[in-house]
Amino acid sequence: MTTVLTKFDHWKEFLGERVQAAKRIGLTEETITKLAFEIGQFLDEKVDPKNDEERVLKELWDVGDESDRKTIAKLMVKLSENNA
């Protein structure tokens, strides 16, 4: 898990695999995005960025309002799907 959190490419691949698994069990895109938003909130509050990419995401998350954060979550889902 440490490698997943320290290398952004591994993180995107990890997320992509989880998104694909969620779709296989029947979760909708809307539900997956909602979960991504909740995970984003958790990470913002509990996890320090481990690399430059995570630092940028945290800064964007911190300056955004709830709507912006939902957009970031949706875009992360799309990005991760391309890396699965």
TrEMBL record:
It comes from the Bacteria. This is DUF3243 domain-containing protein. It comes from Paenibacillus sambharensis.
